[in-house]
What we know:
Helix content is 34%, strand content 24%. The protein is an alpha/beta fold. It folds into two domains: 12-122 and 332-354, 2-Layer Sandwich (ornithine cyclodeaminase, domain 1), CATH 3.30.1780; 126-330, NAD(P)-binding Rossmann-like Domain (Rossmann fold), CATH 3.40.50. The strands form three sheets. It has a nine-stranded mixed β-sheet with strand order 12-11-10-9-13-14-17-15-16, sandwiched between helices. A seven-stranded mixed β-sheet has the order 4-5-6-7-8-1-18. Helix 2 crosses helix 3 (122-137). The longest helix is centred in the last third of the chain and has 18 residues, at 331-348. The protein is globular and about 60 Å long. InterPro entries: NAD(P)-bd_dom_sf (IPR036291), ODC_Mu_crystall (IPR003462), ODC_N (IPR023401).
Amino acid sequence: MTSAASSSSRDLTVLTASDVDTVLAKMDLSLAVAGQAQVFAAYSNKDKKDEAPGVASIQLPLRHVLQTPAQSMLFMPARVPGTTAIKIVSVPKGGSDGLPGTTLVLDEVSGKVRAVINARRLTAVRNAAGSVLSMKILDPEGKKTPQNMVVFGSGAQADSHVRAFVAAYPSIKTVTVVARRSTPRSEALVASLAKAFPAVKVAQGVASFSAGTAEAGFDLSATVHAADIVCTMTSSEQALYGAKDIKAGSHHCLIGSYKPHMREVEDELIQRAGVVLVDSREACGHEAGELQNVTDDDLVEIGEVINSEHGAEAKVNSAGDVNVFKSVGLGVQDVAISALIVQEAERLGLGTIVPNYD
């Protein structure tokens, strides 16, 4: 093996978790946002264009799940123009230190595996890039200068969302991480974010909206009311905050729920939005608990806004007094972020080459 990122078509590049962390630390966030924009646009245009006879530009087969006594193993293949990949994620059935993930990127000409990437952090990164994109495309003139951000959750998704939004919007002055209880993980997240962004006031709030309880000295209603951006990244089955508490003009990114019985916000919030921005009309209609009572006419895909289809941006912005973006995640997003990580690793000379792998 050699430590060089330039390789021939017969070589294999391996990017470890440490390699990926280095790439992410050095990478301009705008590259990730632009990459997500391209695949969302292509996804919403998937029925209109084939790259070649019998070859769809966007391919997103159903994921396959294999069960073991200790794990549920998810296999998720996808293709965007020029790149084919498969992400494999193991979901432990007991306690764990996270979700192990690996992405294989294939060379479309030779059909050989081009790279093996540790993908443990990449799902959160691509979701955060998509959330930033959802706010930016609804504000094409860049007039919004958010100051207060609230995130529900204390895992990798929360970390990536705060880092992405603070990088994209330097106007942010406060970030509140809301957790059901204070844990070493939530405390470590707050400390890490505070160290990364010394000009931003980062604090933890402990509260359970469903139980109507909050830690002494923390007012959830007032905190949410002050928020310009709210991001939810939980597996909650009950609303996390009150729709009556939010202010007009705020932007809400709902990332956590992915099954019909899950929900992170009240119906009233969806009603206040009027039209909901989604990553996929079909996927969200089937999987998002918050949208089970919403018709397809009240859902606009983020790719449709990017493609400027049917006045999509105006339809979202004129429908209510808040914006809501709901994402259940698409495999093509994984392809886009993986291709970008390989590209940046090659540029930086990172990765381990396995010569003559095939």
